């Protein structure tokens, strides 16, 4: 059985181009969503500029952890909540998430 690529090379080429564009757009959407959404999500979880908000999800996690180790995921989340996320870190995080999403989208049928 022949594929469209053998019978109609132009159709095959346009289909691949469309799929690549969809993958890029999906990756861009995930990257921008990560860039914008991470600080919002951390704030909603209770990581604020004044510290961990009492009665929040972050407070419950901190109560379970006890002493928070420097450099841990919790400490990084609190740092971002207190000082915000740097443009470089946000761009890198968004770029990595976007690229990963584009690769996944391109690989899945």
From TrEMBL:
Transmembrane segments: 24-47
Gene3D superfamilies: 6.10.110.10
Keyword set, alphabetical order: Membrane, Transmembrane, Transmembrane helix
A family per Pfam: Ifi-6-16
InterPro entries for the chain: IFI6/IFI27-like (IPR009311), IFI6/IFI27-like_sf (IPR038213)
Topology relative to the membrane: Multi-pass membrane protein
Protein family: Belongs to the IFI6/IFI27 family.
Recorded GO CC terms: mitochondrial membrane
Protein's UniProt name: IFI27
């Amino acid at each position: 059985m022949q594929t469209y690529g053998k019978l109609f090379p132009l159709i095959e080429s346009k289909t691949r181009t469309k799929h690549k564009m969809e993958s890029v757009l999906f990756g861009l959407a995930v990257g921008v969503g990560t860039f914008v959404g991470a600080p919002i999500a951390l704030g909603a979880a209770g990581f604020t500029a004044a510290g961990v908000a009492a009665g929040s999800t972050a407070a419950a996690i901190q109560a379970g952890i006890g002493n928070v180790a420097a450099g841990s995921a919790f400490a990084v989340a609190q740092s971002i909540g207190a000082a915000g996320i740097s443009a470089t870190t946000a761009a890198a995080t968004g770029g990595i998430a976007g690229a990963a999403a584009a690769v996944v989208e391109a690989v899945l049928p």
